[in-house]
Amino acid sequence: MIDYLLAGTGILLMIIGLIGCVVPVLPGPPISFLGLLFLQFSHFGHFTLTFLLGMAFLALAVTVLDYIVPVWGTKKTGGSKAGIWGATIGMIIGIFFFPPIGIIVGPLLGAIIGESIRGASLNQSFRAGLGSLLGFFIGIGLKLTASFIMTFYFFKELF
Q1: φ/ψ of residue 150, rounded to 5
Q2: 11 Cβ partners below 8 Å, 6+ apart?
């Protein structure tokens, strides 16, 4: 009975993890990893320690990258340090004061405001902001990839 409860909770965590990849408030890959752990503690799971450590590293790395990639996108689209700082500050403000939409809009507006304060043209400021937004979407792609990998192995092991 407990094995089915653990597996069922694992399935729920895998679903929430996938949703968390697109909903900024939920940390998708770490939740998906928890789903793997729940399955591991049931009689259905037989993952190796190496596999679990690899998946833990993947979840952690993707989660960290999710905060770095929008700043990288700002820099790659010609944003200056002011735009990068603006995107970073905008992301922090967005996370805490306007969740969940703030994590999308915060870096975009922060980069635009940072570049505008520096004296960049509206066009350049907007381009830096779009770079931040592009970085955000790349982060979603990375999170989805990691969570889908974990979900694949979860169900492969379950069945």
Answers
A1: -65, -40
A2: 35, 154, 158
CB 129 within 8 A of CB 80: no
List per-residue pLDDT tens for the chain, 159 residues long: 999 999 999 999 999 999 999 877 789 999 999 999 999 999 999 999 999 999 999 999 999 998 888 778 878 888 888 888 888 888 889 888 887 788 788 888 988 999 899 888 888 888 888 888 888 889 989 999 999 999 999 999 999
- Report the C-alpha gap between 135 and 97 in whole angstroms: 21
| Domain boundaries of the chain, sorted by first residue | 2-158
Say how far apart CA 118 and CA 130 lie, in whole Å.
Answer: 17
